């Protein structure tokens, strides 16, 4: 799945988001591009749980269409 996190602006943000994703699914693969504010997650779990986890970390994620 591909998420857009418009308020992710730096490496620290990327680290916080990666940690949030890994807390939900330790086996997930996370690829973050801060420049395009894109988070790609490979996981068997649904997008909703990752959206919630990232939001709880203080960011505003959305599924990229």
UniProtKB/TrEMBL annotation:
Q: Which residues cross the membrane?
A: none
Q: Where is the HMA domain?
A: 1-62
Pfam families attached to this UniProt entry:
HMA
Q: Name one GO molecular function term.
A: metal ion binding
Signal peptide extent: none
* Gene3D superfamilies attached to this UniProt entry: 3.30.70.100
What UniProt keywords apply to this chain's record, in alphabetical order? Metal-binding
Q: What is the name attached to this protein's record? A: HMA domain-containing protein
The lineage is: Bacteria, Pseudomonadati, Pseudomonadota, Betaproteobacteria, Burkholderiales
């Amino acid at each position: 799945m591909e998420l857009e996190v418009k308020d992710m602006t730096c490496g620290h943000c990327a680290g916080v988001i990666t940690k949030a994703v890994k807390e939900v699914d330790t086996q997930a693969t996370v690829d973050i591009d801060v420049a395009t504010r894109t988070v790609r997650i490979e996981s068997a779990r649904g997008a909703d749980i990752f959206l919630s986890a990232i939001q709880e970390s203080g960011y505003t994620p959305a599924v990229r269409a």
